[in-house]
Amino acid sequence: MVGHLARRTGHERGAGGTAAFPGERRDAVSGTLLVIAKAPVPGRVKTRLTPAYTPKEAAGLAEAALRDTLDAVLATPARRRILVLDGEPGAWLPPGLEVAPQCGGGLDVRLAAAFALCGAEGPALLIGMDTPQVSPRLLATGLEPGPGEAAFGPADDGGFWALGLGSPALHGRLVLGVPMSSPDTGAAQRERLVGAGLTVRELPTLRDVDTPDDARAVAAAAPHTRFAAALVATAGAGSGAAAR
Length: 244
Description:
- This protein is of the alpha/beta class.
- It has a single domain (32-236), classed as Spore Coat Polysaccharide Biosynthesis Protein SpsA, Chain A, CATH 3.90.550.10.
- The chain has helices spanning 55-74, 107-116, 136-142, 168-171, 185-195, 212-221, 226-237; strands at 32-38, 80-86, 98-101, 124-127, 149-154, 160-165, 199-202.
- A 7-stranded mixed sheet has the order 3-2-1-4-6-5-7, with helices on both faces.
- Helix 1 packs antiparallel against helix 7 (226-237) and helix 6 packs across helix 7 (226-237).
- The radius of gyration is 17 Å and the shape is globular.
- The termini are far apart.
- The model is unreliable at 1-28 (pLDDT under 50).
């Protein structure tokens, strides 16, 4: 069970971002941003970065990616921001987020449970911790879907990095039964959304950080992130360098 509930951000006002949903203009900030993540503990996160990086280095990179993600979330106008966490919060957790524990079960079950945290409130955008290059502008676009709409962010490995739902209470269970962590995950999830009659709006394709090659590519594309700095520092330390 997560040990505490971080300070909850109140109602905020601000501009949404580039509209990807024509005709859908909101004068008041609304919506929930959900981040599903693991606490960056060595041996439990980014295991595919080893042996090129040590478990401690991989956890440090995961922490940097998570902090970049949370920075973007906190800079995005939203009514609620919830970190759905597997593990315990640490010093890396900034103020301004609600923290909720992940439930047990497969990833599809955990994603559905995350959407259920929104209740009848919508829209909601769910992301993970593997895309430190994400920006507030992009997240704001993903919060634009109205009733009967979804926002879908494909990942270039065949999965997806973002899923936005105009009515999360009604459609959050559309993730259940989708085979996760496979090259067909994104296609299967998109097909499920379309099959439910939702209008699916595409977000840009992003690269997840799973492998050492991914880490280098994402750091090069987002050089001003904590993640990029952590990768440079790790390389400079000279340890775990078998694949560098």
